[in-house]
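Hi U.,

Before I forget, here's the chain from the pilot set. I'm dumping it here mostly so it's searchable later in email.
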Amino acid sequence: MIEILQILIIFFIFSLMCFVPFNVLDSKIFNKKSFFFLDIATFNLIINFNILLLLSILPTSLDISNLIYLILYISLFIYLYLLKNYKLNLLKGFFQFKIIFFIIFLILSINVAGELNLGWDAKYFYYIKALFYIQGQNFSDLENFTHNIYHPHLGSYLWAFFSNILPLKFEYFGRLLYVYLFCFSIFYVCHTDFKEKFISNIIFVLAICVAYNYGRFSGLQEILIFSILAILSKFYFNLKNSQNMPYIFFIILGCNLLIWLKAEGIVYATILILLINFSNKIKSKTKIYINLFYALLIFFKIIVYQFFNMKLIGQPFYALDYILSLNFITISYKIKILFSYLIYYGINNFFFVSGLIILLTLNIQKKSDNYLKIINYYFISTFLFIIFAYLLRNLEIEYFVKTTLERIVFISSGFYVFLVINFFNNFSKKHLK
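Structure:
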């Protein structure tokens, strides 16, 4: 019973990141006519993840960081919603709107709390990094962990941060943040306004059912990238005119999270930035600023690691000598193995296979628009990334593919989530009335 109560409390703590710093119900910065309140909640979430990223680098103990977080965020919530703009009916309506989100989160959280079986990488690498923070150490101390340079940073810090925030300090509290982000990303993609709420909620529940399995929340980081890509995919859809330019800013902040989550995160972040350059809804001058801003974010990460005398990666993943030695027979064998497993894992991933079918159908029907072009470019870019990543690396191909490709396919499918859900939303509106 105490654990259930703490799950309820931690749901509120997670939700604080959606409520501040911008008032989702009465924002003076974002025009209500241009942005749905879930858009503003998502902006808050991305900002707060970036704040936690900066906090992870500072030489402060986790206990102090947790205390500052609770005091500051609860104070901001009280000020914004209860003192500055006392609109109890709106707040009540917001919670009623998200009740299905809360129920799904609670069900999945109970499942995660009951399993307690960590994934291989999580057990031997990610959680160990989290323990450094839990035991009072900070970013500079990570160099004492031999495998630090091979494994991601931000996910482990988030795991540590929220594992330590409540009195019982169960490790799975940190992984419940992964559940929250996953549920929120799907919920956000399913809803565009207050209309058709019933249908959107049905699609939300079905989407959760087809996408959820416990292994995603066993401490592995792919679910974080998947969820961020799902959110950003809707941002790209909303890039329709100059009024929606704030989406660009939050796309860049989302990309900043990706480059700190996993090594391949920088590939997906770079692809997303290239997609902005392909958009005809953005001025050329703006694209230059976007590229410079993104370059500064990468430079910032390099500077941070150099400042703490830490390597970004261990030995190079790819060797020029091996790449130059590849011959037709080797390439043919690798491609045969790779495509066999790619088809298998693709068919077993609902959003991946559905996204590609819908994408192919829309292209055949020649329904061309800016968003469809972006999805086309994304598919081409990620497909080439997968091919060359496995073709050029000097590892036994079948073992390499078996142990990693399913997760790569899952990550890539995140950007198809909005395409798939939007298709079913539109279908339901046309045929269920």
